[in-house]
Specification:
This is DUF1007 domain-containing protein. It comes from Vreelandella sulfidaeris. It contains 4 helices and 13 strands. The strands form 3 sheets. Strands 1, 2, 5, 6, 8 and 11 form a 6-stranded mixed beta sheet that branches. The longest helix has 17 residues.
Amino acid sequence: MKATSITVAFVLAMSSFLISTNAHAHPHGWIDLSVRVITDDQGLVSSLHQTWRMDPFYSLVVFEELQQAEGASLEEGLDQLGKEIRDNLATQHYLTEVRINNEPQALGEVSEYTAMERDGRLIFMFILPLKTPQPLTVSLLSYQVFDPTYYIEVVHEEEDGQPRDDALIYNGEPACELAILPADPDPEVVMQAALLDKDESGEPGLGRYFAETGQIDCR
């Protein structure tokens, strides 16, 4: 299977036995995101627990292909799919950038993950560790999750047009202010994205301009 980008391949299940190339010829899809920031026993931020809810069309296609695969149950197919998603995301830094006081943070390797079906949607959950746990005292943690090519849009879970309260969770100390900031791309960048054909991806880096920013402000 020849994909326009590795991220397209991952959402479309990343292997020829799961999906055909014809599925690329349709409009961009999306992922509904929620994040829980995890602290360790010392109160340091250690990881981001991410839940990705794939859009209904992608989910339907993936489930149909999994059910048609011979010699494997749906549960076994989802287990293999989860591993493939993890392995492909690892080459793209899990589509995640984390900063503390505007300093980029190195990320570790994902070892805890799962793929499942829930209410007809494909769900991928994983724990993304920071390479080095960090304190948040008098600090600002921010993150973005995005497909660099903007073939897939990633948005936090919404309700009535606003991010849900559980789209970003942090229960650590100290008490901090949580916010999900909308993207504010330059009009020229918006035009660039609008001119993409339905089976095209943008130049690497385009997705950054359309990414929401999650913030935990402990300053």
